[in-house]
UniProtKB/TrEMBL annotation:
The active site is at C337 (nucleophile), H436. Catalyzes amidations at positions B, D, E, and G on adenosylcobyrinic A,C-diamide. NH(2) groups are provided by glutamine, and one molecule of ATP is hydrogenolyzed for each amidation. Residues 7-235 form the CobQ/CobB/MinD/ParA nucleotide binding domain. The keyword Glycosyltransferase does not apply. One of its GO terms (biological process) is cobalamin biosynthetic process. This is Cobyric acid synthase. Signal peptide: none annotated. It holds the Pfam family CbiA. The lineage of its organism: Bacteria, Bacillati, Bacillota, Bacilli, Bacillales. One of its GO terms (molecular function) is ABC-type vitamin B12 transporter activity. It comes from the Bacteria.
Length: 504
């Protein structure tokens, strides 16, 4: 490995805050003048990101690259695992689909190939950047998996990276989880742990101090920071656990009611993040027809298995209820990617991409028919969206395995790169598109909701610049971590670790 100084963040469990802390350090190092790259060798997520050159990686690494001020690239997440059905996932290698594999086959047949890809990717980044911020996955103490793991301590050894262990105090038992993780590590791996960070703290840190003192004395591992919980952070989440922030109760305030259909294979759910920036909107997740009510807007998000999720909606009464609400003029519907496919007349799967079923009827709300194909489309997209007599410049990205063809009555939603994209109902109350990040386009989002506001007798809102909120969020996060984590001490240890390793 070459010149870059690496640091690795591992956690005691999933959703401990590794991605957020890694994002903070990407921003901190960039602010301090270092050319910085994020790295996660293997990511399991249905929230993905399209790089400028059309490769697909985990969304966390794409966002971390944005925080670092560099272009995202496939080497930053060389292996992406996208669960598609029970015990089976699509494996994406260096940004391109490799194939679908069962978990057992992946672990036993792909290990050596995956390790080689990870090693090459890491070497490339180490040669081209000054700092590498590496993120682990799950826990490094999964003793049943460690002989063939590809994402925690084996990667730390490849990069010769010191490790900071992160514990989530919000879940309780943080000292037990930190101590237990350290105790289960192999002795040589435990030596790599230069300290721990306690994340998502709420309350008076003075009350925590006796525990911090005990931990350092008992383990010999320093506590490098206690990071207070940071609310309303406008940075894309990756883990589906983060969806709980949308779980608004039916009686919570919000003049505009937005129901997001949560199916089992929901993907790229960050499409709905900008809806939280609209102060008079209430966003809630819905899994059954009884929960739907009569919302102003229904959002059908993307899906990694559109056919199975469509069947799920039909079994739970959601599909028929959505159609009724549209026909009665009581709701608008926006379908994104897989949600767009569901709104059409039919989805065909001649190659068994998602299920053995050759086809399934859609909701019939848009004049399109979709055929799933073996080749995945991953592109950045920009164009002009026409709606309600206005034209809006929009940009986003596409990730899908199918193509949708027009039927009689078709009207395009977007003219993108010389082609028609998406579709809209004749009264424009139903919209569908393959373009992710549709609501990230501020002018369109504002016009869309102002149209609803006028109909409800609510004063229209000015444009809220959601994309700029992300940049401010990166700086806010970095400042927060600088305040509560011993950043300079970590950098000093990073240098000392490499010097010690290089000594004869």
């Amino acid at each position: 490995m070459a010149k870059a100084l690496p640091i690795m963040f591992q956690g005691t469990h999933s959703d401990a805050g590794k991605s957020v802390i890694a994002t903070a350090f990407c921003r901190i190092f960039a602010q301090d003048g270092w050319k910085t790259a994020p790295f996660k060798s293997q990511n399991m997520s249905l929230n993905s990101y399209v790089t400028p050159d059309g490769n697909e990686i985990g969304r966390a690494q794409g966002i971390q690259a944005e925080a670092a001020g560099v272009a995202a690239r496939a080497e930053m997440n060389p292996i992406l695992i996208k669960p598609s059905r029970e015990h089976e996932s699509q494996i994406v290698v260096l940004g391109k689909p490799y194939g679908n594999m069962q978990a057992f086959a992946y672990r036993n047949e792909f290990f050596h190939q995956g390790l080689a890809v990870i090693r090459r990717s890491l070497e490339t980044l180490m040669n081209e950047y000054d700092r590498i911020v590496i993120e682990g996955a799950g826990s490094p103490a999964e003793v049943n998996l460690n002989d063939r793991e590809l994402v925690n301590m084996r990667v730390a050894r490849l990069a010769n990276a010191p490790v900071v262990l992160i514990g989530d105090i919000e879940r309780g038992g943080v000292f037990a989880s930190l101590f237990g993780t350290l105790a289960l590590l192999e002795p040589e791996d435990r030596k790599r742990v230069i300290g721990v960070i306690i994340n998502k703290f709420r309350g008076d840190v003075a009350l925590l101090q006796p525990g911090l003192d005990w931990f350092e004395q008992y383990t010999g591992v320093p506590v490098l920071g206690v990071v207070p919980y940071l609310p309303d952070l406008a940075i894309d989440a990756e883990d589906s656990l983060a969806l709980e922030r949308f779980a608004a109760s039916p009686d919570e305030g919000g003049a505009i009611d937005i129901a997001v259909i949560r199916c089992p294979k929901i993907a790229n759910f960050t499409d709905i993040d900008p809806l939280l920036s609209e102060p008079d909107c209430r966003v809630r997740l819905v899994t059954h027809a009884d929960e739907l009510g009569e919302p102003d807007v229904i959002v059908l998000p993307g899906s990694k298995n559109t056919i199975e999720d469509l069947i799920y909606m039909k079994k739970r009464g959601l599909a028929s209820r959505i159609v009724s609400l549209v026909n009665e003029g009581k709701a608008r519907v926006v379908g994104l990617c897989g949600g767009y496919q569901m709104l059409g007349a039919v989805i065909r799967d001649p190659y068994g991409v998602e299920t053995p079923l050759p086809e399934v009827k859609g909701l019939g709300l848009l004049p399109i028919e979709t055929t799933l194909e073996r080749t995945k489309i991953t592109i950045r997209t920009e164009g002009m969206l026409t709606w309600a007599g206005e034209r809006f410049s929009v940009q986003g990205y596409e990730i899908h395995m199918g193509r949708s063809a027009p039927l009689p009555g078709y009207a395009p939603l977007i003219e993108a790169d010389g082609r028609h994209e998406g579709a809209k109902h004749s009264d424009e109350r139903v919209l569908g598109t393959y373009m992710h990040d549709l609501f990230h386009n501020d002018a369109f989002r504002t016009a869309f909701f102002n149209n609803i506001r006028r109909q409800k007798g609510i004063a229209p809102s000015g444009v809220r610049l959601f994309r700029s909120l992300k940049e401010k969020a990166f700086d806010r996060l970095a400042a927060h971590v600088r305040q509560h984590v011993a950043v300079e001490r970590i950098e000093q240890i990073m240098n000392e670790f490499q010097q010690k390793s290089a000594a004869p």
